[in-house]
Specification:
Length: 382
């Protein structure tokens, strides 16, 4: 039996991870679950998977949940301490981090210190602190197995090959709901239009990131740290069918691609079973049904977030942390209808421009910069 801690179990990746586990109950044991505030969903998950411990965001929710669970033998923790305590439980084989945002960073670091392998969906961990996370993972002999479909694809395309033979990686992007639009058409788009992703059903934050193409920008940074690449080795192309999840071009001219249906359970299944290939019942790819695969250049002018991410990565140091913090706040404001679609890149650009870049950061510095940038973006608007 493999013992799994699942952080962010009530979200899109979290519930799909439980779906994968549900199909392999003879192999996996869920020892802990967590969420921010969806305690009704969490309660159902607890009754089904009977974990030892769970964590929620605040004390009030913990008390409420404890009351609901009277008679069940499960420890209910709360706050950041509760979350990190889950990574310290005995006999854990894998921590699946499906939290959204920089909130996932400290739990990732804690799992690394505890020498627990991590299946990582939380890309913001690597965007904000990729250098430290990868260094510490190496030092502690911890595997970081990517769940993000593009990175899971690259991980698979690299198997059996040598990183020094890689020319470049090609990250594919669906293009989001506004592919083919020009700037004048996007000024007044609504939240529900932006949430209407053509290919994937995901949490709200990443769905907006996909509409602005910031998601691909964050993924460029994620790829840099996961696979130790130079920025020039990371290319983005639009592939609307989302069948090729990414590719690796080798120096001999061979390009290896990973293909699968647009079902996040496939990369989740791969990451949690790695290094084994295990059968599942998910619908298999039918290339005749897909019929054709097409590719386009990204429209950097209409979707400025992608270049902002490349720029932040090029400067390096604290810039990707600033990019991420400003984006998290701007997306939240867009979802609350406080700002418009194009205010998202505008606010990020202001935050990057105002920031004095810092190098040689530790995790404490990164959290502090994140907080400062959040305040600054709120103040820019109010
Ligand atoms: P989601 O919003 O659906 O779920 C997020 C989960 O994190 C929930 O369980 C929520 O309760 C918890 N959470 C939120 N804020 C928290 C906080 N401050 N502290 C503790 N827990 C908190 O998000 P999602 O779409 O599942 O995405 C999760 C991560 O996976 C993101 O980093 C996203 O970029 C990445 N990802 C998602 C997909 C997808 O298909 N959804 C694909 C690739 C990568
Ligand atoms: Mg992705």
């Amino acid at each position: 039996m493999k013992n799994i801690v699942l952080l962010g179990s009530t979200g899109s990746i979290g519930t799909q991870t439980l779906d994968v586990v549900r199909n392999h109950l003879d192999e996996y044991n869920i020892v802990a679950l967590s969420c921010k505030s969806s305690i009704d969903i969490l309660e159902k998950q607890i009754r089904e998977f009977l974990p030892q411990a769970v964590a929620v965001h605040d004390e009030q929710q913990a008390l409420e949940l404890r009351k609901k669970l009277t008679g069940l033998n499960v420890e209910v923790l709360w706050g950041l301490e509760g979350l990190t305590d889950l990574t310290k439980l005995n006999k854990i084989d894998l921590v699946v981090n499906a939290i959204v945002g920089i909130a996932g960073l400290i739990p990732t670091m804690s799992a690394i210190q505890e020498k627990k392998d991590i299946a990582l969906a939380n890309k913001e961990t690597l965007v904000t602190a990729g250098k430290i996370v990868m260094e510490q993972a190496k030092k502690n002999n911890v595997k970081i197995l990517p769940i993000d479909s593009e990175h899971n694809a690259i991980f698979q395309c690299l198997l059996g090959n040598n990183l020094k033979d890689v020319n470049k990686v090609i990250l594919t992007a669906s293009g989001g709901p506004f592919r083919g639009y020009d700037k004048s058409m996007l000024g007044n788009i609504t939240v529900s239009e932006a949430l209407n992703h053509p290919k994937w059903s995901m949490g709200k934050k990443i769905t907006i990131d996909s509409a602005t193409l910031m998601n691909k920008g964050l993924e460029v940074i994620e790829a840099k740290w996961l696979f130790n690449l130079d920025i020039e080795q990371i290319e983005v192309i639009i592939h609307p069918e989302s069948i090729i999840h990414s590719m690796v071009e080798y120096k001999d001219g061979s390009v290896i691609a990973q293909m699968a249906n647009t079902d996040m359970r496939i990369p989740i299944h791969h990451a949690i079973h790695y290094p084994y290939r295990v059968a599942n019942s998910f619908k298999k790819l039918d290339l005749i049904e897909v019929s054709k695969l097409t590719f386009e250049k990204p429209d950097y002018y209409t979707f400025p977030c992608l270049n902002l991410a490349y720029e932040a990565l090029r400067i390096g140091g604290s810039m990707p942390t600033v990019l991420n913090a400003a984006n998290e706040v701007a997306v939240e404001m867009f979802l609350n209808k406080t700002i418009g679609f194009y205010d998202i890149p505008k606010l990020i650009e202001i935050a990057l421009d105002q920031h004095q870049v810092q190098y040689d950061l530790n995790i404490h510095d990164i959290i502090e910069i994140d907080n400062l940038v959040r305040d600054l973006v709120y103040k820019t608007i109010t």
